[in-house]
Amino acid sequence: MTIATVGIDLAKNVFAVHAVGKSGLVEVRRPEVRRAKLLELVASLPPCLIGMETCSGAHYWAREFEKLGHTVRLMAPKFVAPYRMAGKRGKNDANDAQAICEAVARPNMRFVPVKTIDQQAELFVHRARQGFIEERTALINRMRGLLSELGIVLPQKAAAMRQGVHQVLEDLPGWCNTVIADLLSHLSKLDERVAEYDRHVQQAAKGNERARLLMQLAGIGPTTASALVATVGNGSDFKSSRQFSAWLGLVPGQHSSGGKARLGGITKAGDSYLRTMFILGARSLLMKAAAHTDSVSRWAIKLKERRGFGRAVVAIAAKNARMCWAALRMGESFKVPS
Fold it and tell me: What is the pTM of this model?
């Protein structure tokens, strides 16, 4: 059995495996492989190219298969879907595995880098921190909604809202006082959690050489630097800084035809968390640019005057993304703009 390419449709308990030889003929078609048997099946195969979609557990399985001598490639599901021969109406595990097997062999396919366990551990911190922040925002909105039922309308700004709740708390009747007091107590605990995870992120960034290099750039703080290094490593999977910026969704979408270029808003593709961090960092840089005289700040101010605040923020975020890619690729030889 001479197997060249394998496609595996991942799941929690039942997997589908599709393998072809160098001639393209099907050598293995297993639509149902139990989780306990998957590693045994892959270990029995000769070293070959294995393709999988990026989903829960993909990086774990990729590391395990690489230990067995296989070459593993991960792909975004949206790039695999066009290779499903049966189309949308014929979607099942076996057809998905066949599509993955076909897609992974394409010469122009774009792959997702396999993350190490340390990278995933660092991203655990970011996901938990972001979860606490979202829970805190939802809690604040819940409190504002409940108080509005009593005719008490508080500001949207979190600090002003907290101050307003404490001012009206003693005047709330019966159970209303109890509920709002409990929600305030839970809000304080979430504040402590967010602050704790902020310290975790700062510690991780300070302990990473690449993250320390990125933090020398204006608009790049510990959160952005730590998340970026944990997600893309040294950036070697991107051919250029523009490709990296496009992967983050910070470049205009094209609707060109007939030789006429029509550019729209940014694509917002890729990792939304990283893109948000770059946008927030760019916003902070632009708001503080007037107090600085470096070349990036002067450029940012001129851009704001010419194109407006919103477009300037996106342009700065895209520029920072490109500089971050250059810093990751060049290492210590990268010169921070002065």
Answer: 0.89
Distance (Å, whole) CA 229 – CA 209: 10
Query: Alpha carbon 306 to chain centroid distance?
Result: 31
pLDDT in tens, 298-338: 999 999 999 999 999 999 999 999 999 999 999 889 988 87
Query: Are the CB atoms for 109 and 75 separated by under 8 Å?
Result: yes
Q: Are 9 and 33 in contact (CB under 8 A)?
A: no
159 φ, ψ (degrees, to nearest 5) = -65, -45
For 19, the 3-state DSSP assignment is strand
pLDDT digits 0-9 by tens, 43-77: 999 999 999 999 989 999 999 999 999 999 999 99
Whether the CB-CB separation of 30 and 40 falls below 8 Å is answered with no
Cβ neighbour number for residue 74 with a 10 Å cutoff: 21
SS3 content of the chain, % helix, strand, coil (to 5): 60, 15, 30
Average pLDDT value over all residues in the chain: 94
